[in-house]
Amino acid sequence: MIKDTGDQISGDILIVDDTPANIGVLHKTLEPHGHKIFISSSGIGALNFLENNSPDLILLDIMMPGMDGFETCEKIKDNEKTKNIPIIFITAVSETDSIVKGFQLGALDYITKPFRQEEVVARVGTQLRLKKAMMELRGVNAMLEGMAYESSTSYSQLSDELHVKIQSAIKIEEKLKLYVGHLESKITELGESLERFNR
Question: Which member of 4, 5, 41, 123 has the lowest number of beta carbons within 10 Å of its beta carbon?
Fold first, then answer.
């Protein structure tokens, strides 16, 4: 769960890397900043973990035996349940093609090895803030949609009530017309009677 105190933001982070030394450095770098760290040493292990858990961020090594980071990322992004979890690739590869491929698969950032602690903390913090902002935006959108639905429903109810009142007014008007016609008829008869009486 993302926690933001203003000065510091923290969240649940899954590190996926087959090299214990890399995991150790990242764990040592991130834990003091309040992050809760989960670890998987393979892409398959990460997918199994994600079946029952939803971390706020995934740090994913590209070069792993078996299922590499690209394939793991693709499977995460293809899953409706996990597709919105932000991914930062971990790579020792400096080739532009690998970084571009990572972005094309849905990763949002990358960290190169050897790690620079300040850079790791900054990039992780940036992605957590972006995710928090997106969650807040989705909440606002949901609230606005709810308000629009309520307004639409209220408008529909008001429209129905107005229609009933208009129909009622039409009926009253018809009755008044009949009553006025009846009165006019009586007045005419009374006038005729008075004329006969005066003769």
Answer: 5
